[in-house]
Amino acid sequence: MSADTGVEALRREGRIVVVGASLAGLRAAETLRDRGFTGTLTLIGDEPYEPYDRPPLSKQVLLGLERAEATALPRRRDIDAEWRLGVAAAGLDRAARHVILADGDTVPYDRLLITTGTKARPWFHPEQAALDGVFVLRTCDDSARLSRKLAAGPHRVLVIGAGFTGSEIASVCRERGLEVTVVERGPAPLVGALGEVLATVAARLQRDHGVDLRCGISITALEGDQAGRLRRAHLSDGSAIDVDVAVVCLGAIRNTEWLAGSGVAAGPRGIACDAGCRVFDVNGIVTDDIYAAGDVARSPHPLFGYQFLSLEHWGNAVEQARIAAHNMISAGPDRRPHLWVPMFWSVQFGVNIKSVGVPTLGDQLVVAQGALAEERFVAVYGYRGRVIAAASFDAGKWLGYYQQQIETGASFPPDHPVVDSRADALQPVDPAFPDPHLPSHGPTVTLTGHSPTEQSVQFRAARA
């Protein structure tokens, strides 16, 4: 037996721990077993449920078409794992190779995969957030509670934030026949994800479907009655709205707090790892026993200038998990990079919105097919003279073509004929993204380079 074969055989044994009983965690576990891992496998999750699908939580479940508890992810195979559910990871001892649980127990590992994902950003005032009628939407339990509240027929629903989740909830409310007010501090819905040029179309969609959309303002306070029930919201323009339900959609927080002090390069932007999903330590040295995948991971992508990307995408979680699992049990020459092209979709007010690539990196935009006024189009984003992304409204069948353009570094603006191209629309314009230094809760792709505020490295004088 060759040395390489022996190393690979050893990597298929031992103890692998997955922290995060999520889509990424489950798919990684299945891949490990598919690829011949015969050691012990432990999955740790802070919720009491086995992995479930999140996209239906803001769509089918809120419409009453599906029960929240019926969203369990289908299994591709048996994974023969020990499940540690309902208890969160609270710390990591890298020297001892132990995951420390919130109940004080420890779980030893030889290799560790972190798939802890994100949680919803809560309302900034804890007492107001605790009012009966104030919700966030991230978990199965969140969706079940909000679904029951919407089914009861509230007088008016307030949605705070018009990113993808907030816009989907507004769409559900109108489909249920509920009055809904959306308050967005940016100039339009989805502006952080797609830029203001396309966001104006999203704004028109909402207003055309009866949404009371208020942009350029924010909520300053949520007011309750003596019984602790939500009754009113106060806005930064001095007005107030009587509401009995408020859904806080202010973006996500990556679940990395439990890694504080562990020496892993983890912070508010996620866990830094290489293209093979191996995690960096705080000094920028890659580890060989800790991996990350899914929403919590951020890694460099060669198609996008080696920017570190954090991707809150369903497809990314699946593909990155498979790459991480493969690399965890493979010798160096057989490891693979994670080169998935970001892809996202959403359905709002009967319109299917999709994107491919990294729109937020774009500095120019053209409407290559259709027209904004018709709410059926493909917009292509350019960066430094090449195609970097595309977004479509009810024209998603063309995105496969634009994905090929992204992957091959096609020139921008597009100089080739396409179906339903309007010659007068091919003049590049600024996509009008908001200032990246200002707070935003719209992007589904975040460019996460080094932040000088994340000072974790300790410099020591070299010894003679």
Structure description:
With 464 residues, the protein is of the alpha/beta class. It has 3 domains: 3-119 and 253-334, FAD/NAD(P)-binding domain; 122-250, FAD/NAD(P)-binding domain; 343-447, Enolase-like, domain 1, CATH 3.30.390.30. 19% of the residues lie in helices and 29% in strands. The protein has 9 helices and 29 strands. The chain has helices at 3-11, 23-34, 126-129, 140-151, 164-175, 191-194, 196-208, 314-328, 399-407, and strands at residues 15-19, 40-45, 82-85, 89-93, 98-101, 106-108, 111-114, 118-120, 134-135, 157-160, 180-184, 212-215, 219-224, 230-235, 240-242, 245-248, 252-254, 266-267, 270-272, 278-280, 286-292, 297-301, 307-311, 343-348, 351-357, 364-371, 376-383, 386-393, 445-447. A 6-stranded mixed β-sheet has the order 3-2-1-7-21-20, with helices on one face. A 5-stranded parallel β-sheet has the order 9-16-10-11-12, covered by helices on one side. It has a 5-stranded mixed β-sheet with strand order 18-19-22-23-29, with no helix packed on it. α2 runs parallel beside α8. The chain is globular, with a radius of gyration of 23 Å.
Task: Give the secondary structure arrangement, pairings included.
Elements: H1 3-11, E1 15-19, H2 23-34, E2 40-45, E3 82-85, E4 89-93, E5 98-101, E6 106-108, E7 111-114, E8 118-120, H3 126-129, E9 134-135, H4 140-151, E10 157-160, H5 164-175, E11 180-184, H6 191-194, H7 196-208, E12 212-215, E13 219-224, E14 230-235, E15 240-242, E16 245-248, E17 252-254, E18 266-267, E19 270-272, E20 278-280, E21 286-292, E22 297-301, E23 307-311, H8 314-328, E24 343-348, E25 351-357, E26 364-371, E27 376-383, E28 386-393, H9 399-407, E29 445-447
Parallel strand pairs: 1-2, 1-7, 2-3, 7-21, 9-16, 10-11, 10-16, 11-12, 19-22
Antiparallel strand pairs: 4-5, 5-6, 8-17, 13-14, 14-15, 18-19, 20-21, 22-23, 23-29, 24-25, 25-28, 26-27, 27-28
Helix pairs in contact: 2-8
